[in-house]
Amino acid sequence: MTSFDTPAMPSDDGCEGSRDPLAAALQALMKTPAMRETLSILIPEVLHLWAGDNRLKNKIAGPIGNSIQKCLRPASYRDEGRASHSGPVMPEIVTALMAALEAAAKAFEDFSPEEKEKQVKAFFAHFGTGQTGRILTRVMHALHDLHGAHPTALADAMTPVLQQSIVKTDFGALRDAADTMAPEIRALAIGINDILWRYPSKLVLSLSLLPDLMNLAVVCLGETIGRFNRAAPDLVADILLSLIRSVDGHSFGAALNELTEVVRKIHTGSALIGEPGAPRLLEDLRQLVAGIAEQLDSRTYWAARVALAEDKEILRRSLVAVLADHPDVITEGIKTYAARQNPVWRARRQGLEALDTVPDDDLETALEEGISDLDLQELGEIVNLSGVLANRLMALKPELIGSLAEQVAASLDMGEIESALSDILHAIGPPLRPIWRAVLPEILAETCRILEPTDDEYETRMTEVRQRLRALLVGETVTS
Fold first, then answer.
1. Which whole number is the average pLDDT over 400-412?
2. Checking CA distances to 252, which of 86, 200, 224, 408 falls within 20 to 30 Å?
């Protein structure tokens, strides 16, 4: 492994060499009893592997290993024995690693800007040798060869491990732990917020990183998309379309089938485990919404909705103000309206054409099953309740509707409306006249049939309407 540019390490007496952060980290790590104990175990094992079955090498390796153990182990370790210190070794190693990282960070912090730049370049130069890429390539080649000979080799090797892990894991204990974690997480959140709000400046600075991260993401995205825009159109289209061609439609269809089946099973199961006429899903959702409503501050909620509506208005007004300063954006949108709307109409036409190609028997069956199940009674109840609410409103505040209508009429420019309507009717009247002549006779004929005398509860009113209509046609005056 290549070292940093400055090989000297700081000495134990405080004299500094090149203040290499890696050297400082290693020195801090080596000073910890846990690491020295670990090395006193590892080095004799390495010597033992080196010696193997060679008697001469074993004669050499044994004393060397014992000597290294005596030198590396602190006196307390040698006196009390290794077994007594086997427990705290791992925590001390973690502590030692953290101390080493802190020492490296401190040493790096004390560097001058020039030294920092030099050390950073030297550090990342380790990754510029291509070794990482070569290792990854070799691993991918090995996996490719392995899959060629045994397509499920990794799965076969990992499945028993996963099986044992799942079998030996007490998911009930995990569930119990998860159930008891809510107070812990809440307490942690409170503690973190207490700390952050104790130092508001740190909180503000930490939050100020979010726009910088967003800006960075946008810059990266813009640069990536810009490279595509600088490429030839056929190349860009070929790249993106190749991605679409790589998508397995059959797999998506199969997954969609399974998803729809899950939805159907939930609906059916909800009806089976619930009370008759009351699916379980309905009751559970009712309880959920009830819990939310109990805690909801309705005044604050609707005040927030009003604030959002006003903010949307501000956004729209800001957008309109910007567009007013850039009229080309508006005019280009108007110019392309037809080009944007025509594909929508063509798609709808094609959909109707596809429906028209359905055989009559199939279409009849589909329409019968689809329309006959409409709950028109519910539609009737909607109309009834709307009438009831309208009558209650008129009884409680009879002048409200009239006042609203008067305000609307007062705000209208009748001259402009009359002129616009007259111009529009004169423009579209002749072209649409054949349509009116085709549909109006049937409309008027049905109107006449409605006005004919009939023995029902509405006949008194209809008689009055016929008299008014006759008087209008012959020029008579009818008193109310």
1. 91
2. 224
